[in-house]
Fold:
Amino acid sequence: MSFERILIANRGEIACRIARTARRLGLSIAAICSEADEGAPHVRMADAAVCVGPPPSAESYLDVEAVVEAARTTGADAVHPGFGFLSENAEFAEALAAAGIAFIGPPPAAIRAMGDKIESRRYAFDAGVDTVPGVDRALAGVDEAVAAAREVGYPVMLKASAGGGGKGMRIAAGEDEVREGFRSATNEALASFGDGRIFVERYVERPRHIEIQVLADRHGAVLHLGERECSVQRRHQKVLEEAPSPFVDAGMRERMGAQAVALARAVGYESAGTVEFIVGPDRRFYFLEMNTRLQVEHPVTEAVTGLDLVEWMIRIAAGEPLSFTQDEVRMDGWAMEARVYAEDPERDFLPATGRLLRYRPPPAAGVGGAADGADGADQPVPGGDSAGAGASAASGAPDGPGPGAGVRVDDGVEEGGEVAVWYDPMIAKLVTAGRDRDEALDRLELALDRYTVRGVTTNLAFLAALARHPGFRAGDLSTAFIDEHFPDGFAASRVIPPEPAHLVVVAAWMRREIDRLNAAVGSPSGAWPALDGADREYVVLVGGRSAAENDGGERAHPVSLPGGAEGVVEMGMEREGEQEGDGERARYRVETAWRPGLDCFEGTVNGTPLAVQVERARHGFRLTHAGHSARYQVLSLRAAALRALMPVKRPPDLSRFLLSPMPGLLVRIAVGPGDRVKAGQEVAVVEAMKMENLLRAEQDGTVAAVLAEPGASLAVDQPIVEFEAP
Structure:
C-alpha cells in the first residue's frame, strides 16, 4: 500500500465505515467536520481532524477549497469522499490532483460523463446499453416540459440532470402535474446540487430497481459483482435492499452485467461504481443512471461476495490491479440491508430531529466486507455499554454462533448525540446475511426488534412491518410496493403482531416484576421479594379510547399470575355470550432475564423466541414488536372498573389550521388573508433535509390569517395558516 494517511471527506456512518477498513489496512486516518460535528464519533476515530466550517453542508462538507486544504494540513496522501457531498464532484477530484493528493474514486472525466444524466444516457446508448425512451436535452421551461411530456407519452418522470438520492424527481400523469412537478423538481435540484436542469423520460410502471456493482482498475480490468435489488422505496429513496435479487436469474445477471461493464469501459472508469437499471414485469431492463461512487447499499454485495469494496477502492487508487477475474467472483448466500432513519412513517416519512436519549443497536457478529480479517479491538461492541459510536461488525461468519450471527450494523451515532436538521437523517444501516433469503430475513426481523432508539422518531417499526409483509417475503416487488401495500399510510398500532396474546402476557409479566421491585424498595431489607402465594389479577388494556390514537379502539384482556408459579401467566379466553372471566384460560410460560429498567424484553413465551421494545407509559408500557406498536396498560381489577366509567378526553380541534408536519424552513406561502382556497390547492412549501414538501388545503375554505413568514424556521406542528370557521 503506497498510501500512509487518507482523509475521509464525509461524516456519520460512512465516515466510520471507511475508517474501519483504513485502520485494518494499517493506514493513518484524518477526518473533517463541521462545527456541529466536532465531537462526533467519526472525528474521535481519526488520528487528526480539521473543522471545515459551520453546520450547513454548503459551508463545510461541500466547500472544495476547505476540504482540499484540510487534506494538505493533515498530510493526507489520498481522500476518500464516501457518498453524497463531494463524492461525485469532478472539480473536487481535479483540485486534489492539482495539490498532489490522490482521489479515491474514478477519473474526473468519468464523473462528468455519468454525473450528468442527460450526457450519461447518450454514453449508454452509444455503448449498446438499453435506455428508457425520453428527451435527451435540458428543458428550457415549464412549457417545453409539457411539450416534451406529450412527445414521450404519459406517465413521465421529470428528473434533475445532476440529481441523485431521490431529489429533483417527480412523476407526472398529466399536464397539470408536469407544471407543478417541473417547478418543485427544479427548486429541489438547485438546492441540492446547484444545477436546476431538468429532462423527461417515460415512466416505466411497476418497475423493479436493480443495480449492478462494478469494479475497474487502472490496468484495463473491468468486472461486475452481481446485482442488488433496491425496489422498495419511498419518495424515490431506497428503504430495503438485498443481494442477490429474487427476480434475476443467471442469464439475466450475465446480460445486465455485460452492459454495465460495457458502459464502464466506454467512460474509462476506475474504482467502484454502480450501474442502475429499471426492470419491467416482462424482465426487459433499461439504463437508469451510473453512480460514480460507493453506494449506501454496498454492504449487501460485500456480504455475498466476501469482498471489501472500500478496500478495493483504496487499492485501485494506489495503482494496484484487481487480484481476481470475473470467473472467480461468487455470490454465496443472501443479504438484506435496512436503512434506519430518524423519520416518522406515520406522517408520510417526514424527517425527524432531536437527541438520541437512548441508543442500543442489536448485537452484531459480522457480515463480510469491512469485517473480514478485523479483530474489532479498536471499536466499541454494538449493544454493549459503548452504545454504538460507529460500531459495526467485528468478526465472524454469517451463520456462525452467537446472538448477533449474520448481523452487521454500520452507524455513526451514539447515545447523547443529535440528529441535526442540516444533514441526512439516516442513523444506521442494519445488514443481515444468511444461507438463503428466508434466513437473512428472519435475522433482519429479530435484529429490528432488538434495535433500541429513544429520543427521536424512527422508521424501525415500519421496517419490521416491511420485512414480515407477505408480499416482500414472496419477493413480489416494485418501486410502487409501499404505495400499493400501504395506500392509507402506515400506522404501527394497526399492525397485527404474529402472536398478539404473547404481548399481553409480556405486559402482565413485566407489571408483576415492577410490583415486586416496588415492594423491594419499600421493604426494610431492600431484598427482592419472593412470590407471596397470592394470585395477581390484572386487566391489560391494549390501544386507547381516544380517536387521536388511531388504533382501532381499546381491547381488554383479563390475566392472572398464579401465586407461587414463577413465570406463569394465564389469560382468559371469553366466548360470545359468556361473562368476563367465565371462559377457558390459556396458560403461558415466560422465560426471560428482563428486569425493570431494560429497554428490550428478550426471552420466550411458551418456547417461542420474542424480542420486544419496551417504553414505560402511564399505567403500563408502549410495546413495539414485528412492526406493531401500541399502549399496553396493566391495571388492577378495581382500577379497570373505575376507568370504564371515566369520560373520553377529546383532542383539540385543529382542523382550521395548516400545521407544519416537520421541523424545516418555510420556503413559500401561496395564499393571503381573505383568499378562497379549494381542497388540494397549494398553500405552503416547507423544505427539510433539502426536500421540498408541498402542503395543500384539505378542504375548501377562506384564509383567516397567515401565522408565519417565508424564511421562518418551523417546529413540528407549528401553525402556518389559520382558516375561517365553516
Remarks:
- The mean pLDDT is 88.
